[in-house]
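Throughout our pipeline, every protein is held as a single compact record rather than as scattered files. Nothing more is needed to write down the fold, since each code stands for a local backbone conformation. The record that follows is passed on verbatim for readers who wish to inspect the format.
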Amino acid sequence: MTEANKQIINVGLIQMKCADNPDDNLNKAIDKIKSIAGKGAQIICLQELFCSKYFCQSENHNNFSLAEKIPGATTAKMSLLAKELSVVLIVPLFEQRSKGIYHNTAVVIDADGSMAGKYRKMHIPDDPLFYEKFYFTPGDTGFKSFPTRYGRVGVLICWDQWFPEAARLTALSGADFIFYPTAIGFSKDDISEENIQADAWRTIQRSHAIANGVFTIAVNRVGKEDEIQFWGRSFACDPFGKVLVEAGAFEEKEIIAKCDLSLIENTRQYWPFLRDRRIDAYGNISKVFIDPDE
């Protein structure tokens, strides 16, 4: 492949610790966006629910006060910032859609400051310390991608990253990139399996890249928040599943992945998984379970 055929887009990943005060977290994120944009990042992704600590560790009605409207104050600030820096931003927020209806949402803001699209988290977990069903209504946006100045951007959020159907449908919508803003880590009860869990988390997202011929980017938070030690390790990989950049497990870090968009076509020519799907035979995928006795 010649240099002339390359279509390099610089993707920025911001892995940061969160404090108690939402304004402090927002200002910190803005500073980090400016810093990484100054180093050449063109598409920049923040971590899941970056404006606050991960409040879903308990079921507490007071936490609903953290939610905000979209569009609202945060998206207004981020739109101005995106336009000022000529960057695309993926901004994950706790959305109040209406009275009593809340979503775990990510907004894609284009480089001219306009809102390119919005994704609401579809798969909502309900596990110890991850009581998200208490807070979030399952998304109704479906799986899609959005055209931006630097490529077509798809977004899925955290628990979505374990579902191959979500990645496949997002890729089929034309995505060049699938971003996974994330909040995942260990509790004090499962720290002994730290490396096993983190490796599975990394492997599933590399698999999405390979199976769909897209760039996948996971942006996780880091640090200790109440009962959870978030494991960081934000990374980006290319359509062959090759890890391009990766942050450490315990550090705040801004990293940039150089993504050559021409690799998407190249990969899909050599590994034509999308071409060879048997969509005529996949009807049972819509069933909850296939009973072997029926």
